[in-house]
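Protocol step 4 of 5: obtain the predicted structure for the target chain.
Materials: sequence only (see below). No template structures provided, no constraints applied. The aim of this step is simply to have a reference model before the mutagenesis design in step 5. Sequence pasted as it appears in the construct record:
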Amino acid sequence: MGTERSRQEFSNQEPSAKEQAKDEPIWTTEDENAILDTIDKWVGNDVAPIAREYDQEDKYPHQLVEQMKELGLFGATISPDYGGLGLPAATYAKIVTRVSAAWMAPSGIFNSHLIMASAIERCGTDEQKSEWLPAMASGELRGGIALTEPDAGTDLQAIKTRADKNPDGYLLNGTKTWITNSLYGNCLMVLAKTDVNAQPRHKGMSAFICKKDEGYEVSKKLTKLGYRSIDSCELVLDNRQISETALLGGVEGNGLQQVLGGLELGRINVAARGAGIAEGALKMATRYAQQRSTFGKAIAQHQAIQLKLGEMAAKVEASKLLIKDAANRFDQGERCDMEAGMAKYFATETGVYCAQEAMRIFGGYSYSTEYEIERFYRDAMLMCIGEGTNEMQRIIIAKQYIDRNRI
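Step 4 output (structure tokens):
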């Protein structure tokens, strides 16, 4: 593959870092620069060259998954105690932005996986952490989160999937949809109702850690406008028997809080994906504007194009600063639902804006699949919907802002 540093090389830096004082970061600025340099090489050599072909043919990038294992991306934010890299969210977000600037879709493979891992590391029992996290960090187990249902998306408390207690553990029944990693992955965290009569409703919800086996059926792979090549599927849980040890944390009724806690990292990831789309579109448009001429000069010299590029560039940099703020708060263990919501809302809207403006700069050529800008346009809109719609993000932002500024 086209990378010069491997997961093992990154891991070899840890001993020297651990010799630092406990209040210092494990990863230094030099470490981060080395990681980002490796990611840039990988993106340039392995990701970007196949993006157009795989997107158009909706092919799953198996070879990239193997390379992600070598790079340690499946353990990016998992603690070194369990074989992960233990990267701070700030560094992780920069990785996601760089990948998404070339092709957004592959970042979803390790994002959903790491949300699941984060929930296990934060809320799981010691036995669950020891059983699941090392295999997840290596990529041997690749997971996702099964939350959304045909009639329950933003309102997760309306889910109908049930986990009924029996002598062998729990029996899962229900349908989940839009589940990333459900076809080519091999484990999931499933949100289900353990008490359908509980009030408030969230007290009757629990999360379960499941491997793929009998009673787990992928009913269809969804055909999508964008975000192609990635397995977004509908799956059916039909009398899926799981053991009592599959209950995350070992206590019923905490599932919604356990899952939502991991979504802060997920929203930082989606914000970074939006910023990556925006930056990739900006770079394409900037290059094209200097190559394309009208009326005797490059269109980059026309004021109308300069106005577009100037606005795009400012929005990209503002997005990165919002992401940095949210990620730093997350790394410091502070509550950051407002900051993550701001970053997710602004950066993903910026992705849509920059993709659209780049389409206008490319003109008629933007409508041809010979130019990759049309993929950025198709991919961008999903980021405004996934991990909580941007309408919901604005409500979260407003409520938190009011709470922090009570009179």
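Step 4 remarks: The longest helix spans residues 255-291. The beta strands are 143-146, 162-166, 169-180, 187-193, 205-211, 216-221, 232-242, 293-294, 297-298.
Proceed to step 5.
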